[in-house]
Every structure is written in structure tokens, then in C-alpha cells.
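can u do me a favor
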């Protein structure tokens, strides 16, 4: 049981987001309103970047198909 918990808890998919959140919390003095704003803003920036990449990929695919 201990091994299972250690493998799950120390998995990079769990640890890295927790470390990121802790860094934001320390930088914003644990103010939940500011932390929420920072998290939402970062999420929106990532979504915008991925959307642009998808549109560029679709555009290049349609241009090469002509």
C-alpha cells in the first residue's frame, strides 16, 4: 500500500502542478482571489496558444492540399 501511494503521489503529473500552484500562492501572499485570477489568466493564454497552433496546422494542411 505504501509503495502504491508513493508511486501515485510522486508522479510528475501530480507533483508539477502542485509545485506550480504553491509558487503562485507564495507569490500572491496566499490571496485566493489573486491566485484564481492568475490561474485563469494562465489557462486562457495556454488555450489561446493551442488554438492558434491548431488553426495554423489546419491552414497549412488546406494549402498543401491544393
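np, heres the sequence
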Amino acid at each position: 500500500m505504501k509503495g502504491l501511494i508513493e508511486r501515485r503521489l510522486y508522479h510528475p503529473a501530480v507533483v508539477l502542478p502542485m509545485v506550480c500552484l504553491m509558487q503562485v500562492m507564495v507569490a500572491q501572499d496566499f490571496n485566493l482571489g489573486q491566485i484564481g485570477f492568475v490561474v485563469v489568466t494562465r489557462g486562457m493564454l495556454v488555450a489561446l496558444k493551442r488554438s492558434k497552433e491548431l488553426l495554423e496546422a489546419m491552414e497549412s494542411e488546406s494549402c498543401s492540399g491544393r
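Residues 24 and 38 are 8 Å apart (CA to CA). hope that helps!!
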